[in-house]
Amino acid sequence: MTLKKRYIILFVSLNLLIIATTHPQVILEISAEWWSNGPYSHGLLGFVLCAFCFWQKRHEMPKYQPHYLGILGVVLSTGILLLADLSHLGQLQVLSFLLIFMALLCSVYGYPVLRILFIPLTILALTLPIWNILQIPLRELSTSISFFFIKLYGISVWRENYHILTPAGTFLVEQACSGLGFILASAIYALFIVHIKHISLRKGLYLFGFAIAIALLANWIRIISIIIIGSQTQMQHFVVQDHLTFGWLVFAVCFLITIYVASYCFDFPDKVIKPTTKIDTVAFKISCHYLLSISILLIFMSVLPHLIQARFDKDYRFKLPTFEHYKILGSQYKQSPNWAPNYIGASSTEFMFLMQNETLIQIYVANYRQQTQGKELIFIGNRLFTHKNWSIWKTEKLAISGTLKNVNLLTLRKNKNRIRFIAFFYVINGHFMSSKNNVKIATILAALKGQPGSSLIAISVDSPLKDNAKAKKILTDLISEILTPTK
């Protein structure tokens, strides 16, 4: 059957609408990032530039015929979406949206369309919140570069992880200071210039690399300037007080260099060949049954995660053992007088207080009958302690004998003489584990089995600095009893 292009556009749009309707949380996440002050605040403008590039490429797309292998791309991309839904990985969900869009294009236009639409698709990818993993190396690089040049400037400076200490105060290089937003915005601009000027691949790579280099330089200048000015003004200068605005001003000035280079060093080609085919007269053969099968597959894979996650135990709660060798001071308390962990969206939480040889032991349990996006066991918003009162001194593994070889151990420090140990691990469908990666895999398997109940178990012991070994022994014995309770 011969279909005009407008029907193909309608087909792609309707299928994207199906995905968006069944996954509104992903659309809300993208919108929230675009409207925030974070690294994706350029997203809306980037989306407009992407749409403009798509519009200019509209005449070139219909000359490719659909390939039945295109349905394989739909299967793979929707499969990734299913895994992202079951593991509650927001960035993977966003990425799967992009992959589904690309698979739909390939299913009707053929895989060569990806070459034609490479620039607009890349711009679209750079607007989506899927690049957070780059913040880790960028943050480390920015901290190292800043520390080197500040020390070279002559200021007495020390470094502890991402903290830069000066006589005037301590500066923390946050993830937001990684420069990711500057890099993404500059990369989008460079790609847009390559598109509208029809720049060759080699010259386009030069411009792309130059734009990213300027963005990195702007971020380093921002951090170094804030620390130097803050050190010399006792943190009272407006640059320190409103460092976000100052950062964007620095980037704007540096961005002018990129604009100048793109305008005067990369000219339009002497002749650009434009397609003469009119869009309204272009038609090609495609099977309606083929399109219908793609839509049915898409609907099924979109609804399947909701059907799987609808199965859960409403009464799920991890039950702690009786602890016969400990003095129980209280159980099933809702809060602790000196410990305030917070696990967002937990269906139930409880504290248990034990005593052994005048040592207070606190146990915190957070239960999840069912995990959903943003209300899950492994989530960036969850915390085991209040950073205002405690700081992390050490992160390590505590060896355990039994079914679990080790658990996670945080050593917190409040002052020179007082520390707090927090040992924690997870329970997924009755299986104990300490690795966050294993938790995600186990969460998927538990959801498929219809038994998604999961819990965090954290044990806190306060100790003088000299009694570390004693406190760790208490934790080891208690955890071993939880893992293998006395019958």
Measured between the Cα atoms of the first and last residue, the distance is 71 Å
Global morphology: flat
Which sequence of SSEs, written as H and E, runs from N to C? EHHHHHHHHEEEHHHHEHEEEEEEEHEH
Structural class: alpha+beta
Total discrete domains:
3
Mean pLDDT: 87
Helix content class? 40-55%
- Spatial extent as radius of gyration: 28 Å
Number of strands: 13
Short description:
The chain is α+β, with helices and mostly antiparallel strands and 487 residues long. It has 15 helices and 13 strands. The longest helix has 32 residues, at 201-232.
Defining traits:
3-stranded antiparallel β-sheet, 15 helices, 8-stranded antiparallel β-sheet, 13 strands, 3 domains, alpha+beta, 487 residues
Write up this protein.
- The protein has helices at residues 5-22, 24-34, 43-56, 70-87, 90-109, 113-116, 118-127, 135-153, 180-197, 201-232, 238-241, 243-264, 288-309, 436-449, 468-483; strands spanning 2-4, 158-160, 163-166, 169-172, 283-285, 327-333, 348-356, 359-368, 391-399, 406-413, 418-428, 431-433, 454-464.
- With 487 residues, it is α+β, with helices and mostly antiparallel strands.
- The chain has 3 domains: 1-130 and 284-310, no CATH class; 131-273, no CATH class; 327-483.
- Strands 6, 7, 8, 9, 10, 11, 12 and 13 form an 8-stranded antiparallel β-sheet that branches. Strands 2-3-4 form a 3-stranded antiparallel β-sheet, covered by helices on one side.
- Strand 3 and strand 4 (169-172) form a beta hairpin.
- It is flat.
- The N and C termini lie far apart (71 Å).
